[in-house]
């Protein structure tokens, strides 16, 4: 598969809505979780969403590889030959989900030649889709109604959004020392990219650990709304270019 099409887009919207229903149904069991080898939690909802999304993508696009947070054991010796693949996080913001916060989402990105070419982020709690199809503008889908979203520049006070659990991050604290006229807001998951894309926040600096499936769709959506995401040297993020699957420290800018 070399090109997304409107039929696949429609199916992905339906797929993430279905996965979102499963996640919400399992929310009462969010305290039932285990800890993975990388010291991050995984719940029944993560696993159920992963299974539905992966099985459906395999049927929709059988020749396109899939890399999911819950199947990240695929070695780089295999992955490095992929020129196109699906990159998904079936439940981003698992800690928020466990803690009862609504700030969790489902992420699906299509990566081609080490960079996203499609991104979709769905909030099961709010039943809102954000996506960017090919090189079109980014949109928000609510109650079957789509609207184009655009970033906004701060008029005086810059609204900076940071991770809910980033209080003790030394890199972030040092970075914010050099900012003036701003206020900070805390939010979980990749929804931060979406809320910058629709003009609610202006800036998202990330200094803590972050995997590639956490950023790819958000990068593509934010770019389609007039923003950008770069590493601390102003370089675009790259995907599947090294053995690990970790995004570097970055800045998401309206």
From TrEMBL:
It is an enzyme of class 3 (hydrolase). It catalyses: adenosine 3',5'-bisphosphate + H2O = AMP + phosphate. The gene is cysQ. GO terms for biological process: 3'-phosphoadenosine 5'-phosphosulfate metabolic process; sulfate assimilation. Mg(2+) 1 binds at residues 69, 89, 91-92, 214. This is 3'(2'),5'-bisphosphate nucleotidase CysQ. Mg(2+) 2 binds at residues 89, 92, 214. Substrate binds at residues 69, 91-94, 214. It comes from the Bacteria. It is a peripheral membrane protein. GO terms for molecular function: 3'(2'),5'-bisphosphate nucleotidase activity; magnesium ion binding. Its main location: membrane.
